Each structure stands twice: as structure tokens, then as C-alpha cells.
Amino acid sequence: NNGVLTALNPDNLGGLKEYPLKNIMEDITGLNGSVINDAQAAAWAEYTVLPKEICDMVFITVSTGVGGGIVVNRKLLTGVSGLAGHVGHILSGVTDTECGCGRRGCVEAVSSGRAIMGAAKNKLAGYSTKYIFELARQGYKEAEFLTERSASTIAELIVSLKLLLDCQVVVVGGSVGLADGHVQKVSKHLSIYSEICNVMLFPAYFRCDSGLIGATLWDRDCIT
Known about the structure:
Helix 7 (about 180-190) links the parallel strand 4 (about 170-175) and strand 5. The protein is α/β, with parallel strands linked by helices. The two termini are about 20 Å apart. The longest helix has 25 residues, at about 140-165. The radius of gyration is 17 Å and the shape is globular. Helices cover about 40% and strands about 10% of the residues.
């Protein structure tokens, strides 16, 4: 917001809350800068490689937190204050989780990397999300529960977004979203819902570089 790093869940910024990113970068480079939310930028990058007939899409990043970006009628939706696309703070069906934004049951508080680590108990306590995913692939039941719950909650979110926006495509990125097998798990959970909620689902084409590429493309394509 105004070139200053902010987040609905400040814990996700790792101590950089209120960091004046735009001013710092302009001072270092001597160039005028523009800023955009990272998930919005990633959404724009991923939209540019979709088939030409696609005019409405949603990007969901599942990483430290859960964020998103929305393209409607071929235009990136940012909102008057840059807030559009914060899909991780839509409420999930899991109500016993506290989110860093101050509410309970947010998708981010169930599906993100921080949430998976925070919910790990007993022998899994203290392990990284990456290792928990590896244990899930090995058939460790508690790890399977945590990764499946993440995927099912993202699937539930996608259904809500489909009903709200009638999007044609959903693209999933982020370190958790791109973990081996995660998109397939989300797709499996989506299959239980009504056919009217079906939507094309893809992993991010640009992988973990979507945000960087999208910021450049947005500056080129959208700023007037």
C-alpha cells in the first residue's frame, strides 16, 4: 500500500512490516518505481500465457500464506486500495484455527505452509512443511491429514470463487501449491462438488517466478 509493505497477516512479512520498499528501491536505482501486490502480479503473469479465449481467471498462491489475484474481462482486478484478491482470508469450513489477520477459520489459517507447520503435533512437531509433505508421500497418517486438509480447503475456496466470479480457469502457485501432487489433491477434492462448479485447474506456468515476471508485465501492459 503506497509502496510500503503491509499484509493482513503481518507475521507473513518476517519482520518487514511497514518497510518502505518503493522509496528504498527508487533511492538505490535512481528510477521511478511502481508497486503491486505480489499475488496480483503473479495472476497477471499466468493470465498472459492462457489461451486467448480465456477472459476470466483466478490465481491462488499457497505458500507462507494464501493469496490471490483476479482477472475479470481481461483486466487485472486490484481495487481502489489494492485489496482485491486476498482470497486467503475468505472463511473456510474449519473454525478452530486462528488467523494472523484476527479472524478465525480463514483459508490461510488452514492451508498455508505456516498453518501446516503450526498444526503439526506429536512426532511431526517442529518439522518443515516440505518435510511434512514428504512424510505424507510416504504414507504417514498425520502428515497425510494435514496435506489433505490443505488441499480440500483450497478446493472449497475454488468452488466459492467459481460461484462468485464464474471464472473459467484457476491457476495454483506458491511453494505449497506447487508441492508434488498438491494440485492433483485439490482436483480430487473438487470432483466431489456439483458439475456447475467445475473449473479448469492448472499449476503455475512460471512456477515460483510468477510474481517477478508479472510485476514487469503489469508495469509494461497496464500502467498508463
